[in-house]
Design a protein that fits this description.
The chain is mainly alpha-helical. The protein has three helices and three strands.
């Protein structure tokens, strides 16, 4: 999977869920092949689609895009 494919999937999923999703929820919903998110790709997502991971649910961070 390329970064562009990954970005499209993540953005589409988060745009459909305004409350956001955890990495585990994204991984399962999108059937992503990665055990953990790539730090470099997360930084790019923050710049390119406005990914925000500041909110927490328990120990997990909630991934969101701007409304």
């Amino acid at each position: 999977m390329t970064y562009v494919e990954y970005k499209h999937l993540i953005k589409e999923a988060l745009d459909a869920e305004p409350a956001g999703m955890t990495w585990k929820e994204l991984k399962e919903a999108l059937d992503l092949p990665y055990k953990t998110p790539c730090p470099e790709w997360m930084k790019r997502l923050e710049r390119e689609i406005g990914l925000d991971r500041t909110e927490k649910a328990g120990n997990a961070r909630i991934w969101k895009t701007p409304a």
